[in-house]
Amino acid sequence: MTTPVPTPGPEHAEPAPAAPVSVAEAPAVPVAEVDDPITEPSPLPLSEPLSAEGAALIDTGRAVDAVEVLRQAVATGEPSATDLLVRAYLDSGAWQPLVDWLVPMVEQGELRFAGRLGVALAAIGDHERAEAAFRMAVSDGQVSASNDLAILLRDQNRMGEVVQVLTWAAQQGDSQAGANLVQLYLESGDTLAAIEAAEAYADETRPDTIVSLADVRAVQGRHDEAEAYYRRACELGGLRAHTAYGQFLLSARGDAVGAEAEFREAQRHSEPNWASTLGHFLVEAGRREEARWYLQHAADSGDADAMGTLIELDGGDPTDD
């Protein structure tokens, strides 16, 4: 592992924030024998018109509209349709339909969908079956599913197992596990463990570990060093780099203008939760009407916090049934 020397980045950094990243948000590329089974849609042949239409809808943020088109594509036997429909369900937060569809497929041996089934089961609160699905995926060689398993275990306060799972995944070469371990330590208040992990796993070939190193330097109050790492992570294309840098600029520097610029870069790079982040930022800035589109986009993807904020903007109580 090589830890970069903090050097000032360009005035306008390229792509990253904090919080463990799940496979649903951003599938990591495992180095095990089995590759991550569901990938970004590639150009489809003319023989798959419905799949091509569905892929285009997903890519333009219309996953809800893509579902019915892709259901038809599956029914007509288009080869690319199954993977695309899984993406559409995930992107639209249609958890129960996804569970209903994937359970029989996984039971029939389609283990490449086990990790996604775990994500959907966790989202509907079926934690026992979600854990079983994640472990099935990991056993099948999908190392990246360890990140989702770790988040599930974290939510059940099983931190000893979380550390074991993420440490193992990082040793297997997973690109997110080391960074997620740092974030989980920070969330639990174990700053010393977070610092130790961040320094151990920092590696420029895994840009999100550089974001995590920036995060711990920010917690230590070493802001100039933290900013240099955030900028470097943006240059390297860290998955959540612009988001993290924007949050740092807002909280540590009081730079709302700079933070907004980074949040909009996060949108441009499709970072996890970009719509929710930007929407809530705009609400806090008093730009409530401008925030609505972003919050609605996040809510349509299953973000409960964004939906609650929308209800509050309309004068409602998000705790009401």
From TrEMBL:
Q: Which InterPro entries match?
A: TPR-like_helical_dom_sf, TPR_rpt
List where Low complexity composition bias occurs: 15-24
Annotated Pfam families: TPR_8
Spell out the residue ranges making up region: Disordered: 1-24
Q: Which SUPFAM superfamilies match?
A: HCP-like, TPR-like
Give the superkingdom in one word: Bacteria
Protein name listed in UniProt: Tetratricopeptide repeat protein
Show the taxonomic lineage. Bacteria, Bacillati, Actinomycetota, Actinomycetes, Pseudonocardiales
